[in-house]
């Protein structure tokens, strides 16, 4: 099974963190293929960046092409997820979505714990996009500056554990999700210090992508996620243009 | 990995259907252990039967004892699920829950298609229990009598496919869930005749139980799903009494 | 008028408290018949215990048999209520339901004040089951150990009054409900010390049961609360088995 | 026990219907005191009329003065209810409120069946005001002209029964409420022809008013329903002005 | 363009504040016509007063008669708004409605900041009436006594600014609305001291009334806001009676 | 006053329709500056296209630069709106947002009537994004093929009027919104044939943009819509990169 692990951020170190934590959760036969955005911002953190980064995620999926059993958009906030689900025939899973739905099987309400308050409104709107407001106790974000996005999890480990414990004590969280992508792998290190189940989004996403790949649901041919008909484009990245114009099919693509 | 497939109904033929469809979705190393209720009703279909069947599910989990990596309560409607999640240390997944959360990764809104209108109010309340009202287009139930619970999927295959197509056309479902337990295995047979992804609840549940077993979240030691303290009981089935009274621990149980 | 006051807990002292407070609220002609669970736990406090206790409540209703004008399931959290409403032809009222609906006529939002944090998640889910989330300011629970379930109201009177006042000041509660069953009778003692209307659940439940008995609505013959058709059972308590199998009718029962 | 049955419409025949049906549901010792609006419209049916009629209801309550144990605002839609609850020290119950809350104890979802489509938006907003949207399957209104408001229940009996049956079959109503005031007494006549419990709002309201009178909750001294402080007024009906200016107290009123 | 600025309170000084702030926001060609209630209370602040004040607002609109392009009901809480929208053919805008809808274009969530806790429950119900619960972070009210309604904005300027800043810091408000009518004009004075956009309700209302006047939507001839048919009345203010009885039309009114 | 009318579609004819209808609604002193996307698709109609088109809208706003008092993103569905509100200091209004909020002042519930079923899921998610679900009766879309996007309003005028009438009769819409951009100007032509107020989104948007420009709210300096701090970018369109990197300020920009 071949799963695309798509990081819509330009920071390769974050892709490495994602790959390492994702790999640990993967089944023996699963090949995880990492891919880092070549354009965009180092780390998507606002609505505007998610708008841009989601469009870049679509470009990357188009460029990666056929041959994957499933793909993961590996930014908590799930930029471009619903558009990708519409456009491509293989299953696409979001980091936030996978983490939240997995958390739902471990308790009635989860808390999202993260390292920067800038992320909170975007994450908040992601919870609403997935219709999971009643399952979420809210978002708790550290309000401290940090050195670098790729080391934030080591630098802030203790503060994040304290925050997770607050989410349990004050917000009555049954489950804690440590997000986003730069915290990949942290859950495993700190789970003994947090008294409720702790979710690592990329581990959850790899398992959920495998599940969709195994269940092999047919691509929608009706409803709101069927592939849109061909449409002319101007000035878009060539692989994405090819997908929207349906030129991929002429090339024998099974995308 | 050892997963308990617990059928809270007394009909062994339904357990066989569940086992066959669950087994097909399981990973190579997974051992699926079926268990049929020794007391209760042939097929849980109403609120009263779910109340009783949920209590029986707790008895069965207590009796099955330690040694499982995860358990599935294999009745759509998830009788006893939240109580089980509270009481036992291994992860417990519900058939409805697993099907609905998996469906959420394939579209914005799913429809639940089933074979008897008697089931609809119970399923409806199950959707509310999981807080997924905005993700569900509703429940569509056949209103035709059938010969037997264990053959209903063969007898009503065409009618169920028609109903699923109605759910797509009229209710704008992005995904269809064929439920409950007696329809186990049907999704795979009919998926070409339904133009959106089709979910088989037991296949989804086996994969989700595996996922929780692999992620190995620690049992909650705080929050609303921590194990309740010991409490005396009167007249309960012995293994369940032992769990509630914490006598299992004295016997070296790891439950 | 004959009303069954069913305590699904095994503690007879709690039944006595319920009876005393219920009796004070009853109309002159009302005969209140108390009944204590013969099996189960001393005091239902968790989801698992509610699952079991609800099934026991159904057994008790079946055993009590015909001849009642209405019944009260006298545990806040209403274990087994919806199943009972489905199965039996006489009206059945829950303690939480009666208290909350009565509170709705005295203000826009009520607070549930109780003596143990263990009860909060169960009560919370009960509010959701009744669709009254927007009418409830939340649940405030004491977090102090207590000597015995039957004396907790005396021991913690002052602390509960302080908590009720907090619910008014901080949560903007218009009405306070003192729950569950072990607090029966407390409302009357402390109402002068709480500056909003205070509800005693069992007093409300007795009055609401009388109301349904007087209005004499016909048992549903359609819809989701019609009595289910006969169904075979295995290993259930005999009176409940008789009800589910419709053997009660053959015996001329009017249940 | 003395209960004020306040009809905020100017049609005395409707008051008579309300009194007759209310009287049948009342307890032996209850004295029901009818009162018909001296100004306003024959039958409140729109938002504008409810705005005016609610203000008139407050005038009537002020005029009726002290000496009542409880009052009923006997127009479905509950004009002036929340203001009355704020202003007066005796309990005040609305016709819609009492009917809907009583219906909640007989099934999960009720339908409101009425005789004119003009009433639907006002009733709809009343359901929202009480936060009962999830308990209501909607409003079904006859769309036929009728002779007179005081005979509409006789003239349209069959059509209303058909509509109630539609509410059960198509909307899955567990309970039917026959409203508003001009249908007082109809429920009892037709309940055999509707296969779910049928609520007569005035019967429910009389019983609920009695319940509040018996439970004797203290008037709120804090929270959003405490009596507002004294305030000068200009040009209001004298008894209402006296209440708002707190001149009633100086006269030894216990209102 | 001629816009009626209707103050349903009897305090002329508040009308002057409203006029001054409204005038500053008005387009060059707009004539703003102020009107102060001749009966009622100095300042509407409770549910009961809103019930009465809303009826008075309808009387005032009827009395003002034809010749206006739009009207503003200038009390935050929008007393009588929906009834007015039903009854009259020119557009009618509420102060709260205009402020909240305008705020929605400047951020995802607004806070309502006001000068008295008495106003909070009424404002809260107004938010619900407009279905904007998810856009509102709540209501923050000063809890300090003040000298006079017409000077409260000067007296409490600093305290209100502090409160607005709290709404931003603690409630995560994207926008602040300074309400109600007695704070007209304050937003402009203090906007530099509040770090998010600040809305002056009357400025918003004047602009929204102009917008409706320019767009010239036709009065509804169907749906829930069509003008109700003629109906007899008793004892109502003559101009309002004329409107309800449709006697205005006979006089060539274009109302 | 200078308002940017930004069409994120590449079809210049649609920009012309928008400009013509927008111009008619504009105030005398308003200069409306049209701008058509140079890259993208002829007409945004799906989630994927909205993801891409929203990113293009941000590029266009950055390119247009300082000097505008407000901007309109003139595609119903509001692609890129929340990101734009975050990034730029002038007010930005969406076509859907302006239409829906304006409709809210003309009735309780609006219907969105459009020319293609492809648009419905995107519009639906836009309603949710704005939290207006309870104000919307749903989306009604023609299901007929059409010749060209720029003539569809003429070709389908009668069918759209029929659909709007259905929305009134069947869905109980109080207001109808004719959307999206290719229907600009149609509302005015057909309003006599639809018995409730009809909204032209671009007319509403021009007026709402003017309103925000007149009220001159300060750009948020706190909360979730403050401008994000500078961040490096790779491979983005130069003007947008300059905005995200805060290089625009160094050039004396007032953006």
From TrEMBL, chains A, B, C, D, E, F:
It comes from the Bacteria. InterPro entries: Asp/Glu/hydantoin_racemase, Hydantoin_racemase-like, Iso_Racemase_Enz_sf. It holds the Pfam family Asp_Glu_race. Signal peptide: none annotated. GO terms for molecular function: amino-acid racemase activity. Belongs to the HyuE racemase family. This is Asp/Glu/hydantoin racemase. It comes from Bradyrhizobium erythrophlei.
């Amino acid at each position: 099974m071949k799963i695309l692990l798509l990081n819509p951020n330009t920071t390769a170190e974050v892709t490495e963190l994602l790959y390492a934590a994702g790999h640990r959760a993967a089944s023996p036969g699963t090949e995880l293929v990492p891919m880092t955005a070549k354009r965009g911002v180092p780390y998507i953190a606002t609505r505007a960046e998610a708008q841009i980064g989601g469009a870049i995620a679509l470009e990357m999926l188009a460029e990666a092409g056929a041959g994957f059993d499933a793909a993961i958009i590996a930014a908590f906030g799930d930029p471009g997820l619903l558009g990708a689900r519409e456009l491509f025939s293989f299953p696409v899973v979001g980091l936030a979505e996978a983490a939240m739905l997995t958390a739902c099987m471990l308790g009635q309400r989860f808390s999202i714990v993260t390292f920067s308050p800038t992320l909170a409104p975007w994450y908040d709107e992601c919870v609403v996009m997935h219709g999971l407001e009643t399952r979420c106790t809210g978002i708790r974000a550290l309000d401290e500056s940090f050195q670098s996005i790729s080391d934030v999890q080591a630098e802030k480990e203790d503060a994040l554990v304290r925050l997770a414990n607050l989410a349990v004590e004050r917000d009555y969280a049954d489950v804690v999700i440590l997000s986003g992508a730069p915290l990949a792998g942290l859950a495993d290190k700190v789970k003994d210090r947090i008294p409720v189940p702790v979710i690592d989004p990329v581990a959850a996403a790899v398992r959920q992508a495998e599940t969709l790949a195994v269940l092999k649901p047919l691509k929608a041919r009706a409803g709101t996620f069927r592939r849109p008909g061909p449409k002319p484009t101007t000035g878009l990245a060539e692989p994405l243009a090819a997908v929207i114009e349906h030129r991929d099919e002429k090339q024998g693509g099974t995308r």
